[in-house]
Structures are given as structure tokens and as C-alpha cells.
Amino acid sequence: MKRTFRNCGRRAFSLIEVVIALGVVSFSVIPLIGLNSVSLATLKAAKESEIAGRIFRSVLNEGLVSDFSNLQTLAGSRSYDFEGMILGSGAATYQATVSVEPATIRDGASDVAIDGASRLKVQILGPGQQIIATRFALIGNRMKSAP
For 61-73, how does the pLDDT look when each residue is reduced to its tens digit (9 = 90+)? Predict the structure, then answer.
């Protein structure tokens, strides 16, 4: 029995052509995979920065609406969830430590207190208790009369 091949005139890719094509594709895909890890790290840093800003604004707004003489009541630690919303109880993802200090300015070699102002310091700890941000704000006594 004799066999005949009908499509003998069709050409296919040779093994060397397939290997070269795979090499070209792999050299273009490998850097894209490397960029993925960089973009994930950037995304994580941007998310933590946004949440730190949300927490700081929350504490700052609390300080701005409270009475200046009771500003020390802001000092202490607060717990926040993964979106930066304050928690009454439960597992906290972020912690904010707030301190209220007298506001000072540097005058030569010494610090001089600013009358009628306080410095609000907010240190924000992320998952794993690493510091992700420390932010400051000056809050003045709105009721203090000008000289």
C-alpha cells in the first residue's frame, strides 16, 4: 500500500525558528514581570500614605474643633482599621500616637515658646508596628487676643 501526502507543498516552522521566537518573546516578557513587583510596592506605599493622611486629618480636625484649653485630651493612642477609620474596639491595623506639646521656634541657640499655640505630633504605625508617618501641626488659640 502506497501512502501519498496531499499537502506536501505546505511549509511549517522549523525548530530553530520556534526556539528563536520563544527567546524573543521571553526577553520581552521577563522585564514586564519584574515591573509587576515594583508596581505592587509603589501601590502599597501610596495606600499607606493615603491612610496616614486620613488618620492625620482626623486627629487634626478633632484638635481644631476642641477647646484650646482642653487640647491635652487629644494626647494618647488611637486604633484604626485598614481604611483609616477609628475603631472603638477590635483588631487594629494602624495605631496613631498623639502628643500635644508647647509650640516653639528656634531663636539662635535656644527654643522660644510661641504664646497661645501648641504643636500637635501624630506618629502613625502601620501593620507590623513600623512607623509609616510622623506629622506635625501648629494649633493656635483662636480666643487669644492680639496685642
Answer: 988 888 888 888 8
